[in-house]
Design brief:
By secondary structure, the protein is an alpha+beta fold. It is built from 3 helices and 4 strands; from the N terminus they run E-H-E-E-H-E-H. Belongs to the bacterial ribosomal protein bS6 family.
């Protein structure tokens, strides 16, 4: 079996729980057709570079899988006809990277930055 990475964009009016359920649904399709899901990530609601189906935002999901080509083809077919999925991208990879993806690492780094209080901002001298 081959190793794949799948990224999909779901409609913006879904809740976070519905988007994560969609990730599980697509993973289950792979499992039902003889594949296995190595890992999943929910990247969150992000602004799109251009409008897709009259929407400016979308829920991003990511799957790592080890599956035969027919299982991937079936998952892509069902994702493309699913009403909530706007785009699907599947890439075959030689090996999966360990740990979280760059998207999750960047989000974690942003969350770990120390927050400055409003009083820590430099003040402008308004008398001059």
């Amino acid at each position: 079996m081959a190793l794949y990475e799948h990224v999909f964009i779901a409609r913006q009016d879904l809740s976070n729980a519905q988007a994560e359920g969609l990730i599980e649904h697509l993973g289950q399709i792979l499992k039902d057709n003889g594949g296995s899901v190595i890992g999943t990530e929910y990247w969150g609601l992000k602004t799109l570079a251009y409008k897709i189906n009259k929407g400016r935002k979308g829920h991003y999901g990511f799957l790592r899988s080890d599956a035969p080509a027919p299982a991937v083809a079936e998952m892509e077919r069902l994702a493309r006809i699913h009403d909530d999925v706007m785009r699907v991208l599947t890439i075959r990879v030689d090996e999966h990277e360990e740990g979280p993806t760059a998207v999750v690492q960047a989000k974690n780094a942003r969350d770990e930055r120390p927050r400055r209080d409003r009083d820590d901002r430099p003040r402008r001298d308004r008398d001059n």
